[in-house]
Fold:
Amino acid sequence: MDEAIQKVLNEAKEKNVKFISLQFTDVFGRTKNIEITAEQLEGALTGGVWFDGSSIEGFMRIFESDMFLMPDPSTFALMPWGDGFARIICDVYGNDGKPFEGDPRHILKKMEAKAKEAGFTYYTGPELEFFLFKDTNGATIMPDPHDAGGYFDLSPIDCGMAVRHETIEAINHMGLKVERGHHEVAEGQHEINFAFDTSLSMADKVVTYKNVVKVIAKKHGLYASFMPKPIFGINGSGMHTNQSLWKDGQNAFFDASDEKYKLSDTAKGFIAGQIEHAREFAAIAAPTVNSYKRLVPGYEAPVYICWARANRSAMIRVPAVRGSQKATRIELRFPDPSCNPYLAFAAMLAAGLDGVTHKKRPPEPIEENIYHFDDAKLEKFYIKTLPKSLEEATDELKKSKLMEETLGKHVFGKIIEAHQKRWNEYRIQVTPWELETYLPVL
Structure:
């Protein structure tokens, strides 16, 4: 028997595991689950578990629905609530025994393999922000932040400290290494950061983390939301993503000879690729109608496609690391936590790797506050903007050969179809703003 499988079986027996959650995500990042008993674990690990793929959004049609899950033994972890419960993240296969082209995890694996062919390993460190609201039957039609805290505030102003602490303990218990947690800028807003890891492992951690946050918030009588912009007039929630490429055990983004940024040509090529393709993969990294209500000037969310060091209005920032080779990285600031992390990381890697492969160079960095630029100054510096709506982002995605190649025709088509449908549903709604503005005077 495979050593990794035997290790899982031994640990499950030692920890008295009774139930195992076999997890995967649909195309839109929602976690799905099949539960099996400990007696079924060995069979699942060696032969997979069949399921109906036609019931999963973005997967297969009804007449070609037979699919199966293959658990990845490296993702086995004990769940932090209830004795005897564990989870394993799975890869999705078709009934022909081949990896399913619509499986987001498979798409990221393919991009990682492409990077490996070029000699690189892709690392990410996302910073996911979320809100805690007072709970109303599991949903918050009118979101009510649970506290009035602000950036780095302490208890008792920060009323979410207990939720953060319990969440950090829970995900550490599952083997997910946390760097820090704190209250964010907006009322009721929080952030927990992970230590950087390979993109596939990090995407696995992100989907687990989001689930754990929601469960623990519920225990405290609160509702956790990763919606990008739940409240007008205050900061939204982003998923700033730190990125680096490593080669032969060394950070390929670091270059001691670069006096200003300590960035290598590889890092600058990666930046150039993401700047060139940002509008094309915006619909992947910021995939909801609501995402584009976050990407507006004035709330620390990027609007302009450029890069800088200290300038937080830039789309890509180079964090100061005091010359540290290991910590040298770039931070992409426009993704948000509503995205599917497997697809978002795959798109980011594809864009960056395109810049590296073709030895592209980014424009000059912009260290001024770009929110104060007028149209003439934006044009002078050749600064483009991110899409202003999901409709515009989807139109850009439709034109992208790179994203079609990265996602594959199946997922590429499903995402465009879903985004167009969702935009049309939103477009024809009569909103409270329209009623308040027009009904009294027309």
Summary: The chain has a mean pLDDT of 87. The CA atoms of residues 90 and 161 lie 32 Å apart. The chain has two domains: 3-100, 110-432. The domain at 110-432 is CATH 3.30.590.10 (Creatine Kinase; Chain A, domain 2).
